[in-house]
Amino acid sequence: MAQQPQQHGQMASRQGSVVNGPPSAGMGPSTGPQQAPPPGGSATSQQNLNQIVLEYLNKKGYSKTEATLRRESAHHDDNGRPLVKRAEDAGGKQYEKAYALLLTYVEDSLEVYRPELVRLLWPIFVHSVLSLAADFYPEDCKQFSTRYGSRFEREHPDEVRQLNTVTLPEHVQASHIGKIFRGNKYRLTMTTMAYSMLTQFLEARESDGGSVLMKLIEAHMHIVTVDRAVAGVERSLAAMMARKGGDYDMPGEDEGIPGHNPGSANTDRNAPNVLARLALGPLPMDPDAMEDIRADLQDEDARDPPKPGQNSLVEEFEQRIKQEPTEDAPTREQVPLPPPIARDIAMEVQKIREHRDRFKIDPKTGGVGPGVSVCMYTFHNTHDSINCLDFSGDLMLVAAGTAQSYVRIWSLDGNPIPNTADANDANTKPSSSRRLVGHSGPIFGVAFSPAAAKPSSSSVSTGPRYLLSCSADKTIRLWSCDTWTCLVAYRGHDAPVWDIRWGPQGHYFLTGGHDKVARLWSTEHIAALRMFVGHDSDVDKVAFHPNGLYVFTAGDKNVRMWDINRGTAVRMFTGHTGNITAIECSPNGKLLASADDQGSIILWDLDKGARIKRMRGHGKGGIWTLSFSVESSVLTSGGADLTVRVWDVVQKAAEASSDGAMVKPEAGVSAASAAAVAGAAVTNAVKDKQKGRKEVVVTPDQISAFPTKKSPVYKVTFTRGNLLLAGSAYLPETN
């Protein structure tokens, strides 16, 4: 206890020596209370300190060190903080400064170059957000996304929502958009002059953000320069001037990820600009079957002679064979099929009759479009449970896939549906509907096998034999249309199956699902015959080419065309800004139509791999179904905006440039219907204006529009007689 005061005194003495410092430090011992520092602020103190150090270095002869300090001090402000003269020195603000520089340059550029330059804004925006997150600037990342993200909400709503959640390096590595954009270079095509002017500007404004933009372009973009004189019509001077005031933000055919030459499925950076040759002609008939078909047609002509001025069935058949091109047609060895049976012969005979007697839809001439009527089937009391619809080829049945995991079949004429399994059961009452139970998840796709109306003189049934359904339970089921029972459950997909289609001959079928893979199946095999792999996200929609040699898959905002023999992609079509919700190939095998959830339909030329035109008129929410007329001159569509619309395929591209909704008299529609369409368009325009969205623009190639009463349209289809059928479900709660 007696030693404690002594230890305390020693500690106090040691602390005092530390505070006062040794005499060798140039400071004398403290003789009184500490004095407050002189007023004047930190700026004056920093200048005095720099001056003292410089004088000391000069006195000691450290000239090099003195010169270095003087040079570096010139880059600091009065408070000692470094002066930011380059955008790279601004930390997270460098990307905002650089993007503002690019945005100003694009908006002030000449009208002839703006359509090309404006396409830089989206990829630079994405990579700026990803770079901010990767460099751990979360607050700057949020501010940047909030400030500039609204510019792209119309064209890239899903991506903008994903980017709003990316603020940390972990998000860049885990997010889908981060993996796609950082794992691939964004391809963009620009004319030589536009790219040269851009690089000159960025070099001249290097310290203002030009170097930041150049680094992003060099690291994450692949810009292909082309000469305007040889770049094609789309980039001609006349085309650029014609688009003045139009939609510059729509992506080009070769733009995006994966980047590729227009139409080509080869995404290699150095891939040659050469497209694979396609066999788009119709599949030749089996020689033995042709003789049987000709004999049956002769019997039909003898039994029911043609009317005056009308071709006989044999003449119609011969003309159809002569019109079929042979130079670009596939061989029957390329599409292996089982030998034809009596049912196949009877179906071909009926197809020839329907083709001769069809309602002919001529292309739009003299500014007047062909009049097309719609036969609409509306389902009531569905409680929003219907996911998909399909009509049978003989126009006798309709099938609906439901969210309650079952398929419902109805008879279109109200007559009882035949069932061979119930033929010997006297207790079973005939019914005009059937329910097929077997799936354990919501059903997203149903498809009847090819069928035709039964000829009056034939005893062979030509109705549908099978029905296919796909579900969230990862299976595809094959149902018999004779016994209405499940025959086979096909398993192979690792995730929900979104869509299913029969091949044109009814032997193969195609599926696409959440596992990013499309599969080709045959009814004779339990396992898939082909797997088509290449999409970066879900395969949402699938379709067959009319000759059966090619298939189409839609996903990640592009459509791919595959050869079923080699299992390789032969075409790729990009240009959609929304998720693709419907695809359809024309009966002549030359065109492809694809639609998205932003209300746009794009028409593609399969041989050239090029976009023909973009058609607009639908509101947002999704175009769920497409169908071509027999002549491939008219396209019809339906979807979530409660309308069926008819489009002129033959008319050349003429993009609407109106800023508001364009309501015009509809050809082939009554005055009351036209007024209803006009009223709906005005109402939607007012709602869009109140919500701050762009109003719907109707392009001139729309022939007519048919509004429904709170009934989203799930299916439209042209019959072989050019009768347009549509299926919808009445939803009272729909706005």
Automatic annotation (TrEMBL):
Please provide, alphabetically and separated by semicolons, the GO molecular function terms listed in this UniProt record: RNA polymerase II general transcription initiation factor activity
Its GO biological process terms?
Answer: transcription initiation at RNA polymerase II promoter
Keywords, comma-separated and alphabetical: Nucleus, Repeat, Transcription, Transcription regulation, WD repeat
The TFIID subunit TAF5 NTD2 domain extends over 91-221
CDD domains in the cross-refs = TAF5_NTD2, WD40
Cite the repeat ranges for WD: 379-420, 436-480, 490-531, 532-572, 573-614, 623-657
Q: Name a GO CC annotation attached to this entry.
A: transcription factor TFIID complex
Carries keyword Repeat?
yes
The segments labelled Disordered in the record are 1-45, 70-89
Listed Polar residues bias regions? 1-18
Q: Which Pfam families match?
A: LisH, TFIID_NTD2, WD40
Q: Where in the cell is it found?
A: Nucleus
Q: What's this protein's family per the entry?
A: Belongs to the WD repeat TAF5 family.
What is the protein name for this chain?
A: TFIID subunit TAF5 NTD2 domain-containing protein
